[in-house]
Structures are given as structure tokens and as C-alpha cells.
Amino acid sequence: MIVVKNLHKHFGGFHAVDGASLTIEKGTITGLIGPNGAGKTTLFNVIAGLLPPTSGRVTMEGRDITGLPPHELFHRGLLRTFQIAHEFASMSCRENLMMVPPRQSGETLWNTWFGRRRIADEERALRAKADEVLEFLTIEHLADQRAGQISGGQKKLLELGRTMMVDARIVFLDEVGAGVNRTLLNTIGEAILRLNAERDYTFVVIEHDMDFIGRICGPVICMAEGHVLAEGTLDEIRANEDVIEAYLGTGLKNRAKIGATA
User: Fold this and answer.
1) Long-range Cβ pairs for the range 193-196 (8 Å, 24+)
2) H or E segment at 204?
3) Do 80 and 44 contact (CB within 8 A), yes or no?
4) 3-state DSSP assignment of residue 138
5) pLDDT tens profile 35-53
6) What is the 3-state secondary structure (H, E, C) of 60-124?
7) What is the number of other CB atoms lying within 10 angstroms of the CB of residue 132?
8) Which domains does the chain show, CATH number per domain?
9) What pTM value is reported for the model?
């Protein structure tokens, strides 16, 4: 579904993404792991159009999307969430969801004068859809709560809910578990699995919690120093010596070998 070929993103002399190549298959939940500074978030930002690549190519279902801005990718069904949730704090959770769909009738001055019935009908439909999404995510009790007043984990659920208000096809989730308690993380995991199974969402998930990755992800990609280090199942990734070295350092790996042969 997504193919990244020899992607580079440089900031001066720093190569945040340094020749990364990978493929995300349609219908999968792919984990993206790696040490801090591996280039995972920068890779997300380039794919999602938040940063222009220095070089390389990104395609989605065979179509070149390299460097397209986020709003164009949004219309193609490619969405991205952030490690820190970006909610409209003073609006209710329901209103946050209702804001998502583009080209709403109430956005034009003409319709506010002459299309009030159309606007009212559209808002009723959006409200019903938002309430359905909140129920799906088991946070319907927060519908009228200001988004700025809910917990960090609930904000992550709300961000996931935004992707359900449009025809999302592939969603990039950046550290969905950061600052989230275990109960809410389980709820988020269940929602991701259901969206994948019931609505054919494709997901790519950056996450440091390996138990969470093991629970929801099939393929796992490990990055280090801006490039792809290894791909496979989580068990295969954990057994890969290059991955062990990237996480623990050569010295620790060698000491482990020495200890095993002593």
C-alpha cells in the first residue's frame, strides 16, 4: 500500500532519515520500533507531508505521493496522529469529532445565509456519526466534556476517533501509548484491532512498549540511525543481533557473548 524507496531527510549535516526503504502492506498493523533518534518520527513526518524529503520516493497504491501536503494526503485517506494529542481544548469531545470532515456546508458564507436547512441536516448527521464513534471507542460518557479536560489516554482515543470521521485508509500512530495507563492502552489496542478487522484500516504504529507491539502488530520494522535495520515478526526482531546492538550497544552484546562462553 505504501512503498518508501531510498528516502532521505537531512537537517544540515544531520541525516535524520538516511536511505530508508520499506513497504507497508494493505490491511496490516505494522510496528515501527527503534532506539531514540532512529528517525522514526521524521520518517512519519515525511510520509505524511509535514516535512519535504531531501531525496527519495513515497508511493501509495502505485501513485507517487512524495512531498504532497497533508491536506491532499488527508483526502487520499492517509492520516497521522501525534505523540502529544492536538485537540481543540475548549470544544467538547463531540465537537472535536464533528470538526473533522472537510467541505462542510457551514464553512461558506453563502450557505450560512441561504442554506441553513442544509447546514442543520448536515450537523445532525455529523452529530450522529460522532456519537457512534464515541460509543465505538467506549468514551461516549465524555461526549459533552471539554477535550482539554480529559486524560492523556482519552485524548489519544479521541485522536483515533478523528480518523473514523472520514474515510481513512492508512493511519500513522506516533507513540499512542506515551503517558497512557495500562487500562486505557488496552482500550486503544482493542480499538485499533477492531478498526483493522471490521473496517479494513491499515496502521503503522511507532511504540516503545514491546508488549503492546506484540499484541497488536504482525510485521515489525526496526530503524536505527535513519535507515531500516531489520524486518520480521517481533520474535525475529528481538533475536536479531543487529537490533540487539542498536538497542544495547556493541559492548553490552560482546559482554553477553563472553558471559555465555565463560
Assistant:
1) 193/29, 194/136, 195/160, 195/163, 195/164, 196/27, 196/29
2) strand 202-206
3) yes
4) coil
5) 989 999 999 999 999 999 9
6) ECCEECCCCCHHHHHHCCEEECCCCCCCCCCCEHHHHHHCCCCCCHHHCHHHHHHCHHHHHHHHH
7) 15
8) 2-88+167-258 (3.40.50.300)
9) 0.85
User: What is the strand order of the sheet 55-60 is part of?
Assistant: 14-24, 2-11, 55-60, 63-64
For residue 249, the Cα-to-chain-centroid distance in whole angstroms is: 28
pLDDT of residue 30: 98
R_g of the chain, CA atoms, integer Å = 20
Q: Where are the alpha helices (DSSP H) in the chain?
A: 40-47, 70-75, 93-98, 109-114, 116-136, 152-164, 182-199, 210-216, 234-239, 241-248, 250-261
Alpha-carbon span 124 to 40, nearest angstrom: 40
CB 26 within 8 A of CB 1: yes
CA–CA dist 119, 260 (Å, integer): 70
Cell digits of residue 255 = 559482554
